[in-house]
Specification:
Blueprint: H1 12-21, E1 27-32, H2 37-53, E2 58-62, H3 67-77, E3 85-90, E4 93-99, H4 105-116
Length: about 120
């Protein structure tokens, strides 16, 4: 699955829908900078992981185009703004966040298993 198939976040209302959906199933937000080579590398790794794991919906935020939405995420979930960054939302709460090269599928899976236990 590529980011073309990941729902793109374009508004605060999209974040609110993700929060609502997280009460049924954990959701992942991937914050991406289109100006950063590191983000491009991490995005490729996340796409490859998602292609095989498909454990949860991944939502894509182009934080260059939608910086105000990224700011909302930072305030709402009380996380520092980073790029690239992933957050897992479960039952309306941020249960995991990681950034840069520390983003990996194995740790995401561990966080999911903890959330579902």
């Amino acid at each position: 699955m590529s980011t073309h198939s990941w729902p793109h976040i374009k508004s605060v209302q999209d974040i609110d829908r993700i929060i609502d959906a997280s009460h049924e199933k954990p959701q992942l937000i991937y914050k991406h900078s289109t100006r950063c080579n590191l983000s491009a590398t991490v995005k490729l790794r996340l796409e490859q992981w998602d292609k095989t794991a498909r454990l949860l919906p991944i939502h894509y935020l182009d934080l260059i185009s939608y910086r105000s939405v990224s700011d909302y995420i930072e305030k709402h979930f009380k996380v520092l703004h980073e790029s690239p960054q992933v957050l897992i939302i479960s039952k309306g709460q941020g249960i995991y966040d990681e950034d840069h090269f520390r983003i990996n599928g194995e740790d995401i899976e561990k966080a999911l298993h903890t959330a579902m236990a």
